What does this fold into?
Amino acid sequence: MRRNVLRSGILALALLASASVSADSQLSLSGLVSGVELCEQAVCGSAIFVAGFAGEIGDRPAVGLAVGGIIHEDLPVAPGCVNLLGGSWSIRTLRRTIAGDVAAGGDLCYVDGTKYFVRMGMHITEGGSGDATFTAILDHGPFPPTIKGVIR
It folds into this structure.
C-alpha cells in the first residue's frame, strides 16, 4: 500500500515538474526599465547596467531588478550609429529569474552630445524561451549615466 502511494506521489511530482517546464516555454516579456550605468565598457569590458523593472513576465505583473552587460563598438558620433556586439541580461523578481543573451546587430545611435538611442534584441534562455526587443535612451549627462526604456 505504501509503495503505491509513494509511486503515485512520485508520478504526480513528475507531472507537475513537466507542466511547469512547458509553461515556461515561449515566455512573453514586457515592461519599463529605468536605471544607471555602473561601469563603462572601456573599464569593465562591457557596459554594466542595473535598473528597476516593472511590467509583465508571462501573463503576470512583475516588479524586479534588471542587470545587463552590453558589448558595443566605440560610441558613435553625429549622425551615426554603431553595432551592439552581444552581452547578457537578467531580471530577478521575488518569484523567478529570467535571463538571456543580447543579440548581435542591435544599434547604439547618437542623439545629441550626451544622449544615445539603444535598440537591442533579447533572447530568453533561462526561465523560459522567446525573444523581446529593448529600446531606450542612454543619457551620459549629468553623471551617473542613466538608461530608460521599454521591453516589448
Notes: Residues 26-151 form one domain. The chain has one domain: 26-151.
